[in-house]
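PROTEIN DATA CARD
Card holder: Restriction endonuclease
Chain length: 350
Origin: Membranihabitans marinus
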Amino acid sequence: MDFNQIDFKKFLKAALKVRFQGISPYDFEDFLSKLFRDNAYTISPTKYAGDYGADLILEKDGLVTVVQVKRYHQDHKVGVQDVNQVIGAAKYYKADQIMIVTTSALTEPAMELCRKANVYVWDWDILKGAIYRTYDLDDEWLFDISTDNPEASDDYFEFYVLEVSPDQYVEDSPVPRTKVVMEMHNKSGRNVNVFLDLPILLRHNNKQYNSVDWAQNYFKSGIIYNGAEVEVACYYLEENLSEIQKGDQVLIPVSAPALSLLKTYTTPLSPEDTRCFLVTYAFDKYSPMYFDAVRFRDRILSKYRVGRWWIRFYYNWSPVFINTFGHLPLFRFFLKKIIKLIMSVRLKRY
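Structure generated from the sequence above:
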């Protein structure tokens, strides 16, 4: 990774929050090379191969140090086998010192072996402290959201609300919840490792509510391939979201260290001027069909001149149709059939 081509502080802020899990192991080695270089070390990388158990070879004040890098998840601890690898590397390279750097921690047997073999250990806390000291950072800076700039536009991701379903009962929850399903679209032009924090609900009256949990079997972190779409879903207490009002919004904190991205995206629960009159009349504003129709309008019809003409026709004449035929007993029934047919054709085509 070329750190001269990115906003380095922004990269660090995104990466530190997820212990560098959002970048590749190779990019993490590049970062550590920069960290040690900025502390006056000379670096000899080993071509990402982990040659003979060493990922980096450092030299300073005439001393050679072999370093093994373990970009592990915080629940995955470095074990004895990992320590033995770097001890073997030290013998091969005739190093003066041995070091392990990890984004996690070590098992107790691994720590005991490090003490006996004089292996320097940088676990997550020590590594983070070294980063803070080198680049003059602290926790206050890391968790300061004022620089996240949620209003700034970019071409990386888009969110759309697909469904809002109240009266949901989840195991181990005695109170009803409202499920919100969103679609996240990767427009960044590359495959990206993404981490999401639980979305926040900002109501029309400026009251803020945190979601209580993720819904199972939906995306919350991982790789999103270029151009792909994933569904994201969370729960709110139903007492906080029992009906949608104009101005209600969902805020989704997104971290993508490889893009130097740490941003809170905003999407309306009910987009401005989305009165899908016939759809709302036939179904209701909570139905998946309603949100599917809104998405069809915004993402497909609005792109074409003919589509925009149909949108204007729809909004101009929907009230007329409802006022003229709404009193007929079978009007809603046949309207549902027609809308379902249109949506099914749309799904097959697009």
